[in-house]
Amino acid sequence: MDFETYGSNQGLGQHQVYAAGFAIKDHTELNYIEQGESSEGFINNFFLSIFKNIKVNLEGYTFYVHNLGRFYSIFILNSLTINNDFILTPIWKDNSILSLKIKYLNKEIILLDSLQLIPHNLENILISFNCGIKKGYFPYSFVTKENLNYIGDKPLKEYYKNISESEYLAIPKDNWDLKKETLIYLKSDVEGLLEAMLKFRDTIHNKYNLDITKVKTLPGLALTIYTSKYLPENLKNKLKMVKGNLENIFRSSYFGGNVDVFINKINKGFLYDMNSQYPAAMLKDVPLGNPVLSLETNLDNIFGFVFCEITPPGYDVLHILCLLILKYHYNMQLWFYDPNLY
Has residue 125 been placed in a domain? Predict the structure, then answer.
């Protein structure tokens, strides 16, 4: 599934949807906004046409939308929430929608973000998967609310991106029809994405016997492949998928490095360059099994996640405090400077 948008200020301002389409195997449908129709009304009608489709029964289908989470979902949510006949169930992560279940009466479809599985732009994806369909050229910044029914001379070359002189000259000069060209471009996008996702699906299914529509992200797919094909048998009953508040606690204990330069000159000291700490740490043991809450205060008796309050040394011991203050920390190690080295 794909949508075409135009924006004010030559495409840099607020965007509106003016075309939409979808492709399934052996069937493609493309829609263009009617004169006087709002973007919200157009999107509503587009999804109604899916649920009421008389040509194909699309009940239960999963559609991939490239960059659903951080772009197209904005238009979809804004448009469908004004219609009480639609029930929307989004799944969010980091302010981005991973999936969107849309229910209308007794039917439902699911939208997934193909960018979460194949993190690249569509043009490169089509090339990578050796697709027969290639992404075309389109003058995005030429489209405005006022010229949606434009027919005339082809837009100037400056409206196109990454197009060569020969490719631009190959476009017919006269009777350039915006609606016609939009639908041609949209058709290549939805059918190209379909071809790529089918190839990706078949590769994963043939190699790992997995259904890509059951996962939402590339890390999720990697984890599913690992746990189903490569996880040692003796660990399969011990590996737990912790969710909810406990997951938030555990995740907050993993953090990146803190690099600050306080003193530019060291009279006496050592230089350490540490690389690949994350891969090295992943080779160490980690807590397994069901989490158990303990009131044990002796850290020598604990292997897990610890709630703690840290009191740093005074100024007579530690001149410069270099300590990551976090609510949760796993396998705690405290690093600080010895002022006697300076």
Answer: yes
